[in-house]
Amino acid sequence: MTQVATAPTAEASAKPKHGPIDWKGGHTLTFVGPLAFIAIAAALRIWMQGNAWTIGIDASDPAFNKTYRALFYGEVISSTVVTLWWWTYLVRKGKQIVDVPVSHEVEVRRIAKFWGLISTMSVELTIMAAFWPNMDGAWHQTAVRDTALTPAHIPMFFLFFPMGITLTVGTYLYGRYWLPKVYGAENGFPWSFFLLISASVTEMMQVAMNEWGHSLWITEEIFAVPFHWPFVLYGWLAAGIFALWAETIIRLLGIEAEMEAAGAGGQEAVAS
Amino acid sequence: MASDTETLEADAQFERLKALVNKEYKYIDRKWDAVFWISAAFIVGAAADITMLLFAGDWDFWTDWKDRVWWPILTPFSLVIIGSALQYIQWLAWRFPTGMTYTAICMWFLSTLGRWLQWGNFVWYPLNFVWGTTMVPAGIFADWVLMKTKSFVLTGLLGSAVFAFTWWVSNYVMIAPYLQPAEWMDRILTVSDIQGIAYIRSQTPEYLRIVEHGTLRSFLGETQYVSIVFGMTVAIAGYWIGQFIGRMLAIWPIGRFMKKW
Amino acid sequence: MTMKKRLAVALFFGLVSTLVFTASPASAHGEKSQEAFLRMRSIGFTDVSFTGGQTLQNGEIQLNQGEFIVLKGVAKLMDTWPDTLAAGAPRIGYINIATQGPCVEMVARTVNGVSTPGRIEIAKGRYYAFEMKLMGRRPGRWHIHPSFAVKGAGTVLGPGQWVNVKRTSSGFTSPVTLYNGKTINMENYGLSVVWGFQVVGFILGMIWILYWTAGKRNPDGSPKSWMGGKRTVTNPAVTLSIPLNDDGVAVGLNSKRDHRAVNMMLVATTIFLLVGWIYQASAYPVKIPQQVVQFEPPKTDLDTAAPLASVNPLVADYEPDSRALTIEVAVDNLSDGPIEFAEFTTSTLTFVPPGGTATAPGYYQKPVQVSPSGPIQAGEKNHKITMKIDGNALVEEHLVPTSESQLTMAGLMVFKDSTGRKSSVEIEEPLRPHFKG
Q1: Residue-level pLDDT at C412
Q2: How confident is the model at residue B21 (pLDDT cuts 50, 70, 90)?
Q3: Fewer Cβ close by (within 10 Å): the C or N end of chain B?
């Protein structure tokens, strides 16, 4: 995410060391973003291995407050702070650069970074929708549920679910300001992002129904209960992510066409 | 009959398209392909996994839920949905008959990781009790149907029915060892029943199992097949839910913007 | 802060918190968050004992993997069962243990003397004497409670016991004898079939996907290797210009080679499935569907014997400041001889008068002051007893319902006669906490 913050400054000054479509150039974020989230998930999972079945099993124990509840507050606070910081940065910086014309090479680099953000979203949504739900099922069909803030819920619902919103909205802001020819404000609000952002927001909202359902509707632990199904339906809205790839591929082909139309240099240095 | 001008134009278009297939670009190389396929693998696998988990998860988590009435109906339905969406996207965009198989391998990887890391390593259930489904052979069959028919209507009808049946065959091979009878607690039970009782699930009392109980109309010897055939038709419905996702949620939004919101 | 630094901070937090957030292990497993008035009125646990293994100095039990302990007790489905749970009519139940996953294995279970693998048909007012044989499985220190689950309501826990399972050098197996006399190890039986089939299937799928997405091409556009050498991202330039039901062979998107390749994959997959099917049919010729075992446990003396006493609860006072609970009851002796008050159990706690003994895990046995002490003579009616309980034990177990929607105290009063026969009577009385402003 922070690569996004530093890249525009680098672009404005000296020519970057690596090309716009080099693995170590434009495509770097594709590795760094996902790895960051995998590292956070791994750290939490490793930490839980040591204490979920001792401390995490009893929400009434003071030790639970010092560990899992503290983690909950820490997650909510840190994700709020990171989100507000990143979005504010994107809007401020974006407004400065959105009307500055850039070369094709720069625009391609930005599209590669955009794809890096999409990769990060893809991995983050996976951790949210596959990695933690497996723990959730394993935990809740085994341990007596005694709080809405169970060890399985805390990383899933209160860190990775909010970060889904952070990433989807943040990626839109990047697209709006850094790729104005694709997502500029004058076009309107893209349906692709609307669906993707809706997926992350409605998933967060569904947490409330989930807790209500477990406490007050169906109080036994079947995974396929009706109040879980909206999680799936809302998740399908994330299919909008394919439209992001498509819209930027169309722009890449458009850039190639513009270069061809411009003539000289368009056929040189063909990518292998 | 086409005029000479129209034929010439059609031929020219044909040649243009052929040239486009192999055209080399300055900034578009195979690295974009790699980034796409590997990045998409995560979200596709996750979408398929969560759809299966929350629609048919209980039947997939435990061997003692993999019965012959509910398992063959609910599981292929939940698995075919995302595979169908990917079939549409990948055929429309690239004419690749890969949607189902791609979904299958992505999901298998994530699901297996989840079972091993969370159900096995975290909670300590033996993996022969909590192994997950495979939809890979079923996906191959459904993708083959698409390649041969080139039609979503036919793939929806034949492909998803074949998908459900193939899914059952491939997963039945794996449940077979656990359906053997054994004597335990003074009763004859299957190995899967014993697993379900012996391996403590404190929040999953045995009565929660939604498995075959028998009715006055459970015709001897037919129960299994009635469920498989019904599962095939339910999978057809699931296929079209997947088509909706692919067409309306993945493809329709491309290049479309809201003016007012 | 750069991305790398952020990553480092995240990992650092993860590691530091592992070191910093250590605390003494818990002993409850979810029951303390259930509403007290429901726990007290639903299932009454008495005579809960854990035997087997070695008892350590601190009262915990230790056993090796593969060794056994026996958990016995009596669960009463109380007449005071709340109307809000299972619509007031509990019908199906399951007696189990609540613990941290499959750390011990259930090897045998009887309810009222009958082997009970699965669910039971239950009714209010009935007693269920359970005996569960458990085998040590996962090394570690685990807290095990008996539990009683009721369909449509949930699970109620009884008093628990710490059990330490030690690893054995010889390893752990879980033997089960099949119909044909063969003994299998349930820990890994059939796993090679499952893994083998899944992995080979995965490989077939990967071959299919790699064919379509990977591989290099020769300068003339033909594939260099067995893979298709196709591009992906640039294809929409072509695919969007041809009909949806056109496979693109004419424009060179796909080829006859591709059609041959998918046919070969189909044949390979079909052979794979056939081999698997034939293998399972021959290796496992006898298969039956999953079994549902459900029956009503027979009645025992606990259900049929005449009660020793009847009890009319009069007052249940609670002082929040001192946490003193006072329960006053009037007892009628219904038997032919003198009876004595033996214990008062509510949810997980058992209160024992001075000089008395009860069967309950040590941590959950607490004292109760009874006045007057001494026997209640045969035929005596309206004999008033006052029980004074130090409510700290109740507070710790979250059994004081002062912030819940029903201020009720309930439980089982157990009396015994001169022969040692015990009989329990339910009491339920509105709780009167004396709140101070």
Answers
A1: 96
A2: confident
A3: N
User: Out of A182-191, A216-225, C150-159, C374-383, which region has the weakest mean confidence (pLDDT)?
Assistant: A216-225
The beta-carbon neighbor of A242 closest among B202, B205, B250 is B250
How sure is the predictor about B161, in pLDDT bands with cuts at 50, 70 and 90?
very high
Q: Across the interface, which of A21, A194, A224 has its CB nearest the CB of B56? A: A224
CA distance B228 to chain A (A): 20
For residue A103, the model assigns a pLDDT of 95
| C219 in B contact zone (CB under 8 Å) | no
Closest approach of chain B CAs to the CA of C119, in angstroms? 6
Which of C183, C240, C290 is the best residue to mutate to test the B interface, defined by the most B CB atoms within 10 Å of its own CB?
Answer: C290
Determine the distance in angstroms separating the CA of A11 from the nearest CA of chain B, rounded to an integer. Answer: 17
- Asked if A231's CB is within 8 angstroms of B39's CB, the reply is no
Does C167 contact B at CB distance below 8 Å?
Answer: no
**Cα dihedral angle (A185, A186, A192, A197), rounded to 10 degrees?**
30
Nearest residue of C to residue B128, measured between CA atoms? C191
ipTM, two decimals: 0.93
Instruction: Look at residue A268 and tell me whether its pLDDT is greater than 60.
Output: no
Please tell me the distance in Å from A142's CA to the nearest CA on chain C: 5
Cα C76 to the center of its chain, rounded Å: 19
One-letter amino acid at B91 equals W
C213 touches chain A (CB under 8 A): no
**Whole-angstrom Cα distance, residue A105 to residue A87?**
26
Annotate A33-64 with b (16+ C-beta within 10 A) or e (fewer).
Answer: bbebbebbbbbbbebbeebbbbbbbbbbbebb
Q: How far apart are CA A201 and CA A83, in angstroms?
A: 14
Q: Is the pLDDT of residue C5 over 60?
A: no
Please say whether the beta carbons of A79 and A163 come within 8 A.
Answer: yes
User: Residue B3 and residue B26: Cα distance in Å, rounded?
Assistant: 38
- How close does chain A come to C14, measured CA to CA in Å? 5
DSSP letters, A2-52, are: HHHHHHHHHHHSSPPSS-TTSTTTTTHHHHHHHHHHHHHHHHHHHHHHHHT
Q: Which of B66, B107, B140 to mutate to test the interface with C (most CBs of C within 10 A)?
A: B140
pLDDT at C311: 97
For residue C141, what are its two tokens?
Answer: 């220190």
pLDDT tens, residue by residue, A233-248: 999 999 999 999 999 9
Phi first, then psi, for residue A195 (nearest 5°) are -65, -45
Arithmetic mean of pLDDT, C214-233 = 88
- B248 burial (CB, 10 Å; 0-12 / 13-18 / 19+) is middle
DSSP string, A197-251: HHHHHHHHHHHHHHHHHHHHT--S--TT-GGGHHHHHHHHGGGHHHHHHHHHHHH
Which residues on adjacent β-strands are paired with residue C156?
Answer: C148
pLDDT tens digits for C49-71?
Answer: 999 999 999 999 999 999 999 99
Nearest to residue B210, comparing CAs of A224, C298, C16, C97?
A224
Facing residue for C190 by CB, picked from B112, B128, B143:
B128
- Cα separation of C369 and A236, whole Å? 63
> How far is the C-alpha of B138 from the C-alpha of B147, rounded, in Å?
15
Residue of chain A nearest B107, judged by CA positions: A130
Distance CA B159, CA B243 (A): 13
Contact yes or no for B203 and A30 at CB 8 A: no
Neighbours of chain C (3+ CB pairs under 8 A): A, B
Q: Is B59 helix (H, G, I), strand (E, B) or coil?
A: helix
Give residue-wise pLDDT tens across range C412-427: 999 999 999 999 999 9
Q: How does pLDDT run across B198-222, given as a tens digit for each residue?
A: 999 999 999 999 998 876 666 667 8
Chains that touch A (3 or more CB pairs under 8 A): B, C
